[in-house]
Amino acid sequence: MRSALDLLRLRILPPVLTGTGVMLLAAGILTYADPTTAGEPAATPVVVTAPPSTPAPSPSVSASASASASASVGPTPSASPSTSPSPQIGVRVATRLVIPALRIDLPVIEGPDGYPPCDVAMYLKELGQPGEGRAIYLYAHARRGMMLPLLEQSKVNDGRGMLGMLVQVFTSDDQLYLYEISEVRRHQRTLDRPLAATSEELWLQTSEGPNASYPKLQVVARPLSVAPADPAEAHPKAEPRAC
User: Per-10-residue mean pLDDT for the chain, 243 residues long?
Assistant: First the structure.
């Protein structure tokens, strides 16, 4: 029997449904009614990428900037970062997502088979986890208290203001992975790029409209560093709510 990813790669599903992967499809994230957006988006995908010459900040600078930007939302790394984490495939999972500059702070749970809940972010289990050297895919509704700030920022100059923002992902083994936003991909309908990734990338997804005819916003971030985290910060209480 073919795996879910094999089926996706063979494009058995219609193109309009392939944009968020098998688990997102099963969870209904392409078809949920999201009352936060309206209006038909542009038909042509828009990809805004940070210039290749833009230097990635050093781990120490990144951690400091992240703590400063977070105010009361973002945590501070608890030790000097290391740039060479040892992968533990199948052991580590994302537990918390923080984007200090946008005041996004969400517990992360495994994406469900049914309709995705509110008040949490979810990971696509068919793809990777931090430190595994492949694409990590986190998604949430475009609603207040969730990923609505991503959607709102993407509408301003095609999201260029998000380039360089820091993203923190805490994991179940009490680590803090730091990423930097490098691409804003509006009006997307495929998952081809994260499926084909051969190095670590963090992908964030939210909706651009209220039904399945609308594409998705994808934000890509490149890895910067990893450091030990306070267990209390790495394990927020998740309270998923039906919505």
Answer: 43 35 40 42 75 45 30 34 44 96 98 91 97 97 96 97 98 98 96 95 94 89 98 97 91
Supply the pLDDT for residue 52.
63
In the block, residue with structure tokens 């005041």: 103
User: How many Cβ atoms are within 10 Å of 38's Cβ, its own excluded?
Assistant: 9
Residue 232: both structure tokens together: 């209390």
**Collapsing DSSP states into helix, strand and coil, what is residue 182?**
strand
Query: Which contiguous run of DSSP H or E holds residue 9?
Result: helix 4-9
List, in order, residues 6 or more apart from 79 with CB less than 8 Å away.
227, 228
**Which has the closest alpha carbon to 21: 124, 115, 132, 118?**
124
Residue tagged 């895919």 (tokens): 137
Q: Where are the alpha helices (DSSP H) in 129-230?
A: 148-154, 192-196
**How many of the other CB atoms lie within 10 Å of CB of 42?**
11
Q: What's the predicted TM-score (pTM) here?
A: 0.73
Strand residues in 68-103 grouped as ranges (E): 94-99
H or E segment and range at residue 34:
none
Length of the chain: 243
| 136 alpha-carbon distance from chain centroid | 7
Instruction: Specify the 3-state DSSP secondary structure of 118.
Output: strand
